[in-house]
């Protein structure tokens, strides 16, 4: 494991080891307080962030390392100077690069031209750190993830892609329910289905909310991605039937609700669900730091 660009690049063993290490770090933070002593991590952010920036910055500090944040005020990646130059220059000083970008190709170029580990903190195709935090959260609720039924409802996006790869590797039965025209990337679906077949999992896609079936947890995301200029009225017309409500949760027998945040109450999910007893949203947010720390320790420790 040289980088974390996508969960699909991991083996099942590597994914399980990351989740186990994240649990150890969470339970015994003092045992890892010097894991990154003397190490510096540069964080390149093209997109605004709350959870990603704070969880990485504080997480690196808790591991005894140093984090340096660079946003677009310092020059957009590939515009002020080539991405390859960003990667090669930063590699002269830093021990790792964390990047939150618009295009996944930017992440790939950083990994190709740099000589230090690169961690994808979000791109248009994948959000592996979120996926790791999500499965860490589920593993705290269920002893055997291969027995879990997880549903994702809404827009097929970078979060969906990472969830599908993670579920496939872990043998989770995953159902993805999206409005027509908003399904995940076709190649990702094919790859995830193949991985699922190899590990005893199952991936089902449908646009019919009535085919949801029994689920242990239901996951949703915002209906409109950051930077999308589509009018809300147009989005709502497509997505309103896919809103996660108490009735939907009860009908599926789902005990847990998941969301990567930010959440818009009474839009993609009702406030009663988002803030309900079975909501894992703050556990997921907290686990971002622990999961990312496991990746950092694995790559740099």
TrEMBL record:
<comment type="similarity">
    <text>Belongs to the aspartate/ornithine carbamoyltransferase superfamily. OTCase family.</text>
</comment>
<protein>
    <recommendedName>
        <fullName>Ornithine carbamoyltransferase</fullName>
        <ecNumber>2.1.3.3</ecNumber>
    </recommendedName>
</protein>
<feature type="domain" description="Aspartate/ornithine carbamoyltransferase Asp/Orn-binding">
    <location>
        <begin position="147"/>
        <end position="298"/>
    </location>
</feature>
<dbReference type="GO" id="GO:0042450">
    <property type="term" value="P:L-arginine biosynthetic process via ornithine"/>
</dbReference>
<dbReference type="GO" id="GO:0016597">
    <property type="term" value="F:amino acid binding"/>
</dbReference>
<dbReference type="Pfam" id="PF02729">
    <property type="entry name" value="OTCace_N"/>
</dbReference>
<feature type="domain" description="Aspartate/ornithine carbamoyltransferase carbamoyl-P binding">
    <location>
        <begin position="3"/>
        <end position="140"/>
    </location>
</feature>
<dbReference type="GO" id="GO:0019240">
    <property type="term" value="P:citrulline biosynthetic process"/>
</dbReference>
<dbReference type="InterPro" id="IPR002292">
    <property type="entry name" value="Orn/put_carbamltrans"/>
</dbReference>
<dbReference type="InterPro" id="IPR006130">
    <property type="entry name" value="Asp/Orn_carbamoylTrfase"/>
</dbReference>
<dbReference type="InterPro" id="IPR036901">
    <property type="entry name" value="Asp/Orn_carbamoylTrfase_sf"/>
</dbReference>
<dbReference type="Pfam" id="PF00185">
    <property type="entry name" value="OTCace"/>
</dbReference>
<dbReference type="InterPro" id="IPR006132">
    <property type="entry name" value="Asp/Orn_carbamoyltranf_P-bd"/>
</dbReference>
<dbReference type="InterPro" id="IPR006131">
    <property type="entry name" value="Asp_carbamoyltransf_Asp/Orn-bd"/>
</dbReference>
<keyword id="KW-0808">Transferase</keyword>
<dbReference type="GO" id="GO:0004585">
    <property type="term" value="F:ornithine carbamoyltransferase activity"/>
</dbReference>
